[in-house]
Structures are given as C-alpha cells and as structure tokens.
Amino acid sequence: MTKHVHKTKSAKNRSFLKWAGGKYRLTDDINRLLPKKKKCLVEPFVGAGSVFLNSHYERYILADINPDLINLFNILKQDVECYIAALKPIFFHPDANTADYYYARRQEFNQSRDAFLRSVLFVYLNRFGFNGLCRYNANNEFNVPFGSHKTHYFPETEMRYFAQKAQSAVFICGDFQETFRLADEHSVIYCDPPYAPLQQDSNFTKYAGNDFSLEHQKALADLAHQTRLERNIPVVISNHDTQFTRKIYQTAKLKKIRVQRSISQKSERRLKVGELIAVFSPPARSSR
Hints:
- The chain has 288 residues and is an alpha/beta fold.
- The chain has two domains: 24-68 and 169-280, Rossmann fold (3-Layer(aba) Sandwich), CATH 3.40.50; 73-157, Adenine-specific Methyltransferase, Domain 2 (Adenine-specific Methyltransferase, domain 2, Orthogonal Bundle), CATH 1.10.1020.
- It is 35% helix and 16% strand.
- Helix 3 crosses helix 6 (115-128) and helix 3 (67-78) crosses helix 7 (156-165).
- The protein starts with 26 loop residues before the first helix and ends in an 8-residue tail after the last strand.
- Residues 202-209 have low confidence and may be disordered.
- It catalyses: a 2'-deoxyadenosine in DNA + S-adenosyl-L-methionine = an N(6)-methyl-2'-deoxyadenosine in DNA + S-adenosyl-L-homocysteine + H(+).
- Belongs to the N(4)/N(6)-methyltransferase family.
- Keywords: Methyltransferase, S-adenosyl-L-methionine, Transferase.
- This is Site-specific DNA-methyltransferase (adenine-specific).
C-alpha cells in the first residue's frame, strides 16, 4: 500500500535517481514555457523524471528507450513499499560503499533477467556509481564505474512521491517517433534529448547505449516543427546553445539560459554552459 506523501504545489520535488543532465534546476524555466491549458504532458526522453515530478497535468505519457528505466518506473508505480523493502538490504549492506561490492552487484545486474531484481540493482548502481551516469557497452552491459562517494542518501521519500504521482502516468519503452504519435490535441510534448555536443566535430552523446547523432537531432527538430503545424500540438525542446542547434530550431521561439554542469568531479571543470529551450508553438488560428 502506497503511503500518501504530502507536498505543497510550490515545493520542488527531486527524483529518486541521480541523473547526468537531469532537469531539476531547469524545471521553473521549463514550466513557464509549457502550456498550462493542456491536459497531458508527453515526454519522449523522460530520464529521471524531474519535469514530470514538477509539473501539474491531469495525465502523463512518459517514454524512454532504456528498458531498465521504464521497468523500474512501472514496478515503483505498482508497489513502492515492496520495492523499498527489497532495496534497503542492498543499499545498507555493510560493504555497499566499496568497489568490490559495487562491481559484484553490477555483474549480478548484467547477468540477471529477473525484472524485479534488475530494478532494485539499477537504483543501487545509480546511487553508488559515478555521478549519476547511465551507460551501457556494445554488449548492452551496464558499465558505469564505482563512484567513491563519501556519503549516501536513501531516497525513500522521493520514491514514494514518484509512485504516488505515477498513478496518473503511463510509462512506455519506445523512441521519440513512437512517442510523438501518442500525443493528441490535449497534449504538450516536452523533449530532453541527449544534448548535441558543444564541439560539433565530435559527438560522444550516447542514447541509452546507442548513438544519438546530429542526424537524430535534426530529425527531432523537424518532427517538432511538423507536429506543431500539422497536428496543432506544441513542442518544447531543451538542448545546448550552439550554432548547430540554433539552425535546426530556427522555426521555434528560443529562450537562452545558463546552467551549471557537474559531470566532472573536478570543480574547475563544472562550468556554466549556454542552453536553449526551443518552443514550437502551433500557428495562431484565424478568428473568422
């Protein structure tokens, strides 16, 4: 039975996952640009779910191509108390914060086909691995190294809140083209794709183990433009502010912001970078 978690509408809600490129810091900026009159928020790249957790729609369609992530969300939605009870012994194991224990659990995760066990180990690996990275090798094995963190927080409250809010959400494993097709006239689509590289001559962005190339970036921008014109559905996309992204988003209204990036453990490399939020609004209807 899910315990009811009380949250005020003004409070910001953190995800229970650490997530490289997560949108917790940007949720206020993004919410100001999302249409409030729509009933459904569609996210083709849900990630850790920060925008979902900090928006207020009647329903949600949340997708990602990472089956481990979607499996985890569906299990939490179904029975968060059972999930928390299974995670605690692993999270609070005396050796949990050691490299040997971490790599043993990572191997167990990669060898297991049990959906519930993989969901439990996924959160352990996420919280004890390096800086919230989610990365797989060519054999589809999770390969994020041990994080060497001094302290660890068990996100019990955050998991319960996620499970409570998830009752109004549908979680789907699929790509962005599939997810766009699920939106209707009552929807707004928010996209947080793997970001285009700041240096365009090298693209190391990984999309749940697959390359999300510059061609994918352009295809997403073209689909957003087409969706707002042909289906009258607004689309909002966040990305790095580069010459390339400004070109592919040239039919959108652009908002520029500065964001602290913290993938590196070295503080001098945690620099503020320029980001864009592109808003593809449907054309104004004639008053005739």
